[in-house]
Please model this.
Amino acid sequence: MNKRSRKKQQRIISSRRGIIMIALIAVLVLIINIITASYSWFTPGEEEKRGMSYGFTGNARSENCSRTTYLGTKTASWSTEGDPYINQIVYGDTAAANSQTIGAGAVKYFKTEIINADTKNASCVSLYISSIPACTLAITYPGNTVRTFKSTDTRTDIYLVRDAYVKRHDSADVDGPGKLQIEWFVKNNSSSSITVNLGNLYLLYN
Model:
């Protein structure tokens, strides 16, 4: 082999060695970057004010309502509008007993007050009675409905009011703080006494 061929072969070998060294360095740099990134990602530590959180800022309805039912009495008072007198219902100041007996052909008057104790949120409620004997059931306020149930009728889960608005509790409200009043009566159409259980009245939040 002459001197020119030997030099050419040495240059080729040197070039290959250079390429191999560059490739090894590149691989080494890549491995170091991967290891460094992985170590940084999984290294334990604490960061303040970072992460995910959930907060609800909408207005919630109140579910802090109570109910009390009062017994009413029909009375007559003089009218200044032409008629000699008008009938009106006067309600007592104490809660009525749960068991109310109504004689044959008699009528009993009731007023159920729903009080919302929440000072921030109003509510929406329904008032129903889970069971009632055969009778005529009338709601005179805030609605004006009358239903007559015979002994053969289904008399369970009867709504006195549906989706009624109850305002928030405000002690300065002249109409009553967070108050909804429902006036209703039961008439016994039978020839014997019936019993209405006021404990069967329930509030439902809508």
